[in-house]
Amino acid sequence: MRIIIAGASPLGVDLATNLIAQGHEIIIIERNAEKAQELAECMDCTVINAEATRPEILEKAELEEAQAVIACTGHDQDNILIGLIARTANVPEIIIKTDSVELMTVAKKLGFRHVVNPSRTTSVIIADTLRGLDVIELSTLVRGEVRFTSLIVAKKSAGEHLLDLVLPPKTAAIGLYRGSELILYSENPVLQAGDELLFATNTEAEDKIRMMLSEDEEAQMQDVSPNSIRL
Question: What's the pTM value of the predicted model, to 2 decimals?
Fold first, then answer.
């Protein structure tokens, strides 16, 4: 798999190291010349010393041939912009790192499904550990084609009851987050714009949900594969 990693942050470097070991073709784009030179000398991958938010640089990295783009620079806004550029090239997998919870929500509203917030994830794990809870990683629960995904409610779907949504086969609503409050499906809440819906589904049905519930025809034609699309 050809993977472009934008930003040689500690996360980006560690990820590149692991992916190279798995046999993937990695291209790292790093704006800092000294860091880029250091990586070029010690890592078995292509390193481009440039600003990844520039479309011509992503073209130089053969963006249209990439199967995945991971935007993990130290600037959340840059990561979202890189994701948008990658989406215009129809890159199948786009992963965005953000340290801001607010910008995480923005990225989800823009239709990005894979939005990672390392500090939030780590803080939850540590807090649960201090409470004496054993954290079960979601990856241990996911088998075969099963997927857990979330969708941000757009204005057009506000006012509907959660259980009135017509979903594809093998798909079930778990509930929704309204701010920090979790409301389970059994309460059948009325949807509000900005709610984050949680679903259990499979790969095939996940694509159908995106096609059924995208906000416009243009969004339906885009592969915008956190785990978030808009209703």
Answer: 0.65
